[in-house]
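Sorry to interrupt, but I need a hand with the structure work. I would like you to pick a protein and set down its sequence and fold. Please put the record directly below this note.
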Amino acid sequence: MNLYAKLAKRAAEGRPVRVGLIGAGKFGSMYLAQIPRTPGVHLVGIADLSPTNARANLARVGWEAQRTQAVSLDEAVRLGNTHVGDDWQALVRHPAIDVIVECTGHPIAAVDHCLEAFAQHKHVVNVTVEADAFCGPLLARRAEEHGVVYSLAFGDQPALICDLVDWARTCGFPVVAAGRGHKWLPHFSRSTPKTVWGYYGLTPEQAERGGLNPKMFNSFLDGSKPSIECTAVSNATGLAVPSDGLLYPPASVEDIPFVTRPRAEGGVLEHKGMVEVISSLEADGRTIPYDIRMGVWVTVEGETDYIRNCFEEYNAHTDPSGRYFTLYKRWHLIGLEVGVSVASVAVRGEPTGVATAWNADVVATAKRDLQPGEMLDGEGGYTVWGKLLPAHKSAAMGGLPLGLAHDVKVVRPVRQGQSLSWDDVAMDTTSQAYKTRRSMEAMFAPAQRKAA
């Protein structure tokens, strides 16, 4: 655990990790807020569709104006300043950049950014987990082929869950379940940007004051983001996913080891070794005290009497049998923690979570009846939400990945609650994102098996 010392050494030697940031919105701004406080890191440049907005966000998080004076990328490297522009290709192709942080939140564009970065021999920290959810295994393979590291972003929940899973396995514990929290009731899957704030717990005035994007926040609420993030975790850790979507069992922090047990032992899991999401609401809508809504957790098993005795001796909170123990982080700090990934890939050559197989998928599922001619509006919108499924089920049905369900025309009727397939829509088959997804399906085709 010596990343800070390694960064400080790089700073003392005048060899900072040189970073390029693509996308300076909310998540990117949180990372920007931490960079001036982190030794051994130089943000060489920012590429954003609106350089004006990027500069405004820099000012909002406290950057001094002289640090982003109108300088070229070459001058930014030489002077230690930061270039702000709209040319992501110039940023990715600059020879001085070590790490690209992809922070656009646009999955189709993110694929282009990642693949070009690999071709330019840059490490990539991919904040846009939506892209990882539909083609992460192939992105990881392409990075490896170019001798660079591709990584999920620390601070976002998938990388934090992967960290807990790695902790457990490194200690010798079998992982029974791992996941995150969420505020969930079943009807939230039909939420739209018009209904999101009431369900989410904010007033429209609060949302406007914070400049919050209703479509983005609706993707958190309607189950799309939990499914996306659990897909990333499953593909990175090998943990299985529920056979017909997340269950969202309600539980307080203290109750997690009770519910994240196999069904045969009183829990909700189909079997050991799964991802799941814990709801912070009871089925009747009551708020659960001491919830895990904003946090992450892992449940492990004490396989021997000796280990279970240790749990008891050290007052570890377990299920009634004393066999299952949950470790958790109740909060995640999102972009404020991305520096851990940047440092890890740059000075250790290690990702903070990376897809190794295609175990899970997020399939676009109709929020209402859809008719031919309608246009899908993607994650968090009015037409579809993302349902987590095992990859073999998605492959068998030709499931339409949520990340590619943007600006796509429906060509045949789809019932509310039905997951869409490629045959239900008219896809643009020329995009690199589509081609990458199809290549990933061919390369990582899962076995056609029944869920355990």
About this structure: The chain has three domains: 3-155+335-348, 158-184+223-331, 360-443. The chain has a mean pLDDT of 95. The longest helix spans residues 129-145. The two ends are 37 Å apart (CA to CA).
